[in-house]
Design brief:
Length: about 450
């Protein structure tokens, strides 16, 4: 959730006008369209609503071939690398990821450049009639703000004349709001236990939901891991050629040859790179103009912001990582093994049980500062409840309600003790903490998550 504009009068008039247009459009989707309370549970009705909403906009999502990426862990990073490879191959490529960290336009990327404020505002204006027709319906099983967000993305891509798009699935796949794409490839990354209130309590149930992105005759690149039996059965049922990825060591692609996976302090980044490389190889097998050099450029592209991102190198070192489920937090703990005893700023959203999350990250912690991001219309765990759950596990923990005050406390402690600060548990928390180094206004105006960092 964006903070109010910081000293807008100090900005040049054109920049101020652009930010005000952006903020009005963002607020319409993120605040005005958000309906409090739970929606009616009707998965088939949700899909029907998404398809009907797309039709009302003229089915812009079918204007180009798409790669749809689903999975529990790594799907945003995999989608970003695939898009970088397609852009490197000369295809004008749109990328949609969700959620955003700081600016809505992080969801709407063309050839690595975020949509400008004017294009985003025009797209939101275009979806308003269809969204306003639905916002008063209490019986609608689909999220109106989710439909509007996707619709605005599709319209921005159509205006930009993209030739291909990489679309990250929101939750699950079978009944997600991402529907009606002209799919050229589907991708399923590592599976784990997450969103169990929606997807089920077992890995097989979750795999069944993720496998819903498969389509007849469309290859599916998938990690051969938990849930593989379900994925294979669904691929056989729908007639989708299944391409297994077995990460580990360097990779030899069937068409494009050997690939050197990137070295990283975060081991999952090499795993994600293997999946992205296999996806690009599968597209090459379908006649897309992709060569080994394009795969190499994709894997050398900058990781997504907020994924083991070092925003401050020292005094103290500060790492932002959006791990928000047990598998991701366990991976983060392993990545921190060489730097034990971090001061961790921690929050959770969505009604998750905090105990397995705290058990996953706890061994990496010297202490935890439990907090909650500022959100509209989304559940967050009360900081006091998180701190009590952490203390019940024998962890040193305290609660600080304001997320930036929690960050200040963690930085002060880490500086005194010569430790690292890690902000994790929620992508929304990571986005708000990132404001300390990279203001959201600069992300919007610079059209990149990577404007020159403002170190403090």
């Amino acid at each position: 959730m964006n903070a109010p504009l910081a000293q807008p009068s100090a900005l040049p008039p054109a920049a101020r006008a652009a930010l005000l247009r952006y903020e009005a459009a963002r607020r319409y989707i993120d605040v005005e369209l958000v309906r409090p309370g739970k929606r009616r549970h009707d998965p088939a009705g949700k899909v029907a609503a998404a398809l009907a909403f797309n039709r009302a906009l003229g089915d812009p999502q079918r204007a180009w071939p798409s790669v749809q990426v689903a999975g529990t862990s790594g799907k945003g990073s995999v989608a970003t690398m695939i898009a970088a490879g397609l852009s490197a191959a000369g295809l004008r490529t749109g990328l949609h990821v969700s959620p955003y960290l700081q600016a809505f336009t992080e969801k709407v990327v063309v050839d690595g450049v975020l949509a400008d404020a004017g294009a985003f505002a025009r797209a939101v204006d275009a979806v308003r009639p269809a969204a306003d027709a639905l916002r008063a319906r209490d019986d609608l099983p689909a999220s109106v703000h989710g439909l509007a967000a996707l619709g605005a993305t599709y319209l921005c891509f159509r205006e930009a004349g993209v030739e291909a798009a990489v679309i990250e699935t929101g939750v699950g796949g079978r009944f997600d709001l991402v529907q009606g794409l002209d799919r050229a490839l589907t991708v399923i990354t590592d599976l784990g236990l997450d969103h169990m209130d929606v997807l089920g309590e077992t890995l097989d149930e979750i795999a069944w939901h993720k496998a819903g992105v498969m389509a007849p005759g469309v290859p599916c690149v998938a990690v051969e891991g938990p849930g593989w039996g379900v994925l294979a059965a669904e691929a056989a049922r729908v007639g989708a050629p299944l391409v297994p990825v077995r990460p580990g060591g360097d990779l030899r692609l069937p068409r494009l040859g050997p690939v050197a996976l990137p070295a990283s302090p975060a081991p999952w980044q090499a795993r994600n790179a293997a999946v992205a490389a296999a996806a690009l190889d599968a597209l090459a097998g379908r006649g897309w103009p992709i060569g080994p050099e394009h795969v190499a450029r994709a894997l050398a592209s900058r990781p997504c912001p907020g994924r083991f991102e070092v925003v401050q190198a020292g005094d103290p070192r500060v790492v932002l990582d959006g791990a928000h489920n047990q598998p991701k937090l366990e991976a983060l703990r392993r990545a921190l093994a060489a730097d034990p005893g971090a001061v961790i700023v921690f929050a959770t959203t969505g009604g998750r049980d905090p105990r397995p999350l705290l058990e996953a990250i706890g061994p990496a912690a010297r202490s935890l500062v439990c907090t909650a991001p500022v959100l509209h219309g989304k559940d967050t765990a009360p900081p006091g409840d998180l701190a009590r759950a952490a203390r019940a596990l024998g962890l040193d923990a305290r609660a600080v309600d304001d997320p930036l005050a929690a960050l200040d406390e963690a930085i002060a402690q880490a500086r005194r003790e010569g430790r690292t600060v890690v902000v994790t548990g929620s992508l929304y928390l990571v986005g708000q903490a990132r404001e300390r180094w990279v203001p959201w206004e600069r992300v919007v105006l610079g059209r990149t998550p990577w404007p020159e960092a403002r170190l403090r």
